[in-house]
Specification:
By secondary structure, this protein is α+β, with helices and mostly antiparallel strands. It has one domain. Helices cover 33% and strands 21% of the residues. A 3-stranded antiparallel β-sheet has the order 2-1-3. The longest helix is centred in the middle third of the chain and has 10 residues. The termini are far apart.
């Protein structure tokens, strides 16, 4: 896992992971370009739609192990944890 590509909140979330195979990390992936065809298959195995992966920024729900494999790809620039959204005007 290339931790230089991961933001601080995601590093903290990784510390709380109990099962490294469970997909529970909702992230934004910032890419430097479209991944090669082999990596599109890899992304589909991680649960990312191939069409979404051709965008410069896309979302994914990953396991800790999947995140580690993803950050090792040269076309991945940065991965950051998505925050939970709430409706405006409603209390948390």
């Amino acid at each position: 896992m290339d931790r230089t590509k991961i933001d601080a909140p995601l590093v903290a979330a990784l510390d709380d992971v109990k099962d490294p195979e469970e997909r529970g990390l909702l992230v934004f992936v910032h890419a430097s370009g479209s991944p090669p065809a082999d990596d599109l298959r890899f992304l589909e195995e991680l649960g990312v739609a191939a069409q979404a992966a051709t965008k410069p920024i896309f979302t994914a729900t990953l396991s800790a192990n999947g995140l580690g494999q993803l950050t090792d790809r040269p076309w991945v620039r940065y991965v950051r944890l998505s925050s939970k959204l709430r409706l405006v005007g409603r209390s948390p």
